[in-house]
Amino acid sequence: MSTDPPTPPAVLDVAALTVSYATRRGRVSALREVGFSIQTGETLALVGESGSGKSTVALAVMGLLGPEATTHGGTMLFNGQDLRRLTPGQKQALRGDRISIVFQDPFTSLNPGLPIGLQVAEPLIFHRAMSEAAALDKAVEALAEVGLPHPRELVRAYPHQLSGGMQQRALIATALICDPALVILDEPTTALDVTVEAQILDLLDELRRRRGLSMLFITHNLGLVNRICDTVCVLYAGSVIEYGPTAQVLSAPAHPYTMGLLTSMPRLDPVHRRTRLIPIAGKFPDLTQLPTGCIFHPRCAHAEAACRENAQTMAPVAADHAVRCWKSVAINAAQETMAPLQRAAVPPRVSVQQGELLLELKGLRKIYPLSTRLTRARLGIPGTRASIPWFRLERPEVRAIDGVSLSIGSGETLGLVGESGCGKSTLGRCVVRLLEPSSGSVLFRGRDISRADRKQLRTFRGLAQIVFQNPISSLNPRKTVGAAIDRSLANFSGLAREGALARRTEILEQVGLAGNYADRFPHQLSGGERQRVGIARAIATGPKFIVCDEPVSALDVSVQATVLNLLSDLRDQLGLSYLFISHDLSVVAHIADRIAVMYAGTICEEGPTDAVLAPPYHPYTATLLSAIPSPDPTVARNVRIRPRIDGVAGKVPMRGCVYHHRCPRTLGKMCEETPPPIVQAAPGHWIACHLPLAELEAMPAVLPIRVSDGLQSPAGGHASAAVVHSGTAPE
Amino acid sequence: MGFYVAKRVATIGVILVIISGLIFVITQGLPGSVARMIAGQFATPDVIAAIEQRLHLNDPLFTQYWRWASGILSGDLGQSLIMERPIGPMLREALANSALLATISIVLLTLVGVSLGIVAAIKHNSMLDHGISVFTFLGISVPEFFWGIVLILVFAGYLHWLPSGGAGNLSAGWGAWASHLVLPAATLTFALIAHVSRMTRSSMLETLRSPYVLFARAKGLPERVVLVRHALRNALLPTITVLAIDIGLLIGGVVVVETVFSYPGLGRLLIFAIERHDLPLIQASILVIAAIYCFANLVADLLYAYFNPKIRYGGTRS
Predict the structure, then answer these.
(1) What is the mean pLDDT of residues B259-285?
(2) Do B212 and A96 touch (CB under 8 A)?
(3) Widest CA span of chain A, in angstroms?
């Protein structure tokens, strides 16, 4: 990299950057000798899990590190000028002008009390000394450039009037308004729904091409990296451990950590879908006490004595591709021969056929009435055009679940997938009667739970449990792990004290926690451990059925893999049925036998996993699928299907098909006025759509198929059908 | 917005009707007899009966309430039984005095409290922050009458800088007029300032840690703009709520402080009325205080809407 003399100076050249934070537990080593460079027009991905230091890099470059941070050394050359040597005033002049940033969460990055226009225009007012009026005119242009409709009206709008996707577009417009040389994107789509994420990525891609932007793209999602980045820099616990071109790093990762990230990711591709995830062993290191030698050695399967003793340095493995691992070549050679073996070692799980019916939902509805409001109305006078102004009382309602019928067999996993606000969590709660449905019935072993008396409900609570998304807020902070499990046992197991204690240890072992965890409090556990406790608490009652409500969404990818594996194992050992709720189709496809796709309170498609992931699709399913970026550089996404407008939560059509206003294939009047028929595409595969089945079947397959792997695909017939379409589909 | 204000004013009307009923019933239930207070300890039953007859004290309760309430609606607050003067002008004068004192105190409370809170937040965990913390807590942890007496002792008794009580007259010059207000206003403010400064400090700290303030800094805005436009504006929302509650507390404080400083305001009038069992005067004073409290809260809510567009434009995100 530095040996090529003719290369022009990099936009950003970071070398040996070392940063630490002072905390109560001691000094946290956030970054150690971090180095990377970004050329003009290049997009560099900074990849890592939480604690890797990727956001610290962003704040260091912006000159926004807090007073608790100390920079110990290194240089940050921006167009040849060391950012570390600038005065605070010079840094302020660069920020928002030459270097700008977009943060993770659009919902909190905009000031709720100021109109959008002013917030977008502010950099021009201060860096270009523009008048407010002139800057606002420019803001209108900037909002239009990022694809926001009605920019003139938006200038006067307030953040809460915009959807998340629109807010993120406004933030991008702010970052670009002074035409910066470098844009830092810190997890810009993590807080957004996947279809909105895809639209934001399209926008970034287009802006990058049109303006020749240089971008530092910070993310934990390797799919996004593959979709948008030229170069990858992998951070682990504050050190760069691998650095190289995206295609190379993702297809031939050289560091065991990068390999681990890839093998622990659930993927949609038919080949990977059913194979067991291979998580990264061990725990993320304590940044106040780093391991000696290679920082990754405590978690590395290939570690030997030399790894424990010698600190590692970056060494090239190929052109422009460097890795911080002396055994990299040997490991890679071994991996080549082992990979197929590993895949074969764990045979893909055979889908459970729906046997005995365990749970059945019939026409379930949950309606929340909103407070009555007075609205202006006009009463027409019959026979004339005249009307009299009048007020009428309006009683609006939110249909969280609007007529859902589903069934789950014993031992079966039904995946429920949908975007935020679609009603999937409400459904999960209605199923275990944590919420009372407005109408419809929930039959568990043929008995209607919504009409169960206290005694029946108690029996049901023992048999049906729930695991929540956020383990820290669903565990009582004042109770130990043991106490949480004891409570379930005391209520439902009927065991005496001694028996309960033994059972508790057994349960903790089942979820992979040692017995001494019983005395710990939730705040003393890591995220993955907490979720194990949540699962332990659920299985302690001896259930047959568990609602898993986004159980892995709050976890890092390597931890997510261990929890997913644990859930699969428990299902097989204990003969459990799951209703597995997630916004992440890859996760659902990995674990579920059947999938139901939910949109705005209704089920738009339901069927066996392989059938739902291949044509015929519901148009919404196709949109969801095509929005998910694959981390595999050898396959390209065949089709890109985008919804027509940004999803605005709460604005759901009250008539016709709930998806018609976003549907790229809408038939117009029919979709707007008549609710869609539910068509059986194949046995057990149902699609709620007005489009003729033949047309749905003719839709191009979204999932990529590698020709070399195509024949081994467990998806069988669907996969071979998909091969025909691959490559021919329009962009 | 107009609809919202109309709805709130209508609600206040309903609340005042209920309060007036409550006041009337409760004051009727007070021990002791007005007639006996007027006639004196040694009056004969005939005299007392005559007074009761004259004041319609034997009418049914509802008739008495109706007479009183309809009088208020037509602007007649009735006659003070003890002083035998119309209540209206008396109350107006006392109210003007108290309003002056309260307004000065609230302005001081807002300016000083918010400033101290901002300084404490910006310099948090510094000696200055701790100093402000100790100073304001001294005010809130000891009752008003204590600091009132301390101030009188120091500034009136020892230093002779300021008068110890009473109200000044404008005819005696601005200085003399204002000098009577300094100590009572300072006492009232000091007692409440911790609420305002602590709330401003903590909400300012929270706002300074928010992503939108970080983003404002990332835009390269001058620190002054970051603090005032992006942080303070949002940080003031909880402070406004506290100020509205403090107006209620201030009314209680005014009663105490006016007594300590012999200041001729609503509070002292109310104490006087209670001591003498002057029912119409008690009822009118309490009703006026309730009305002030209701409208103070309305003003706070309107200010809240002004600062928070989510309320102004209705519709929050789910």
Answers:
(1) 86
(2) no
(3) 94
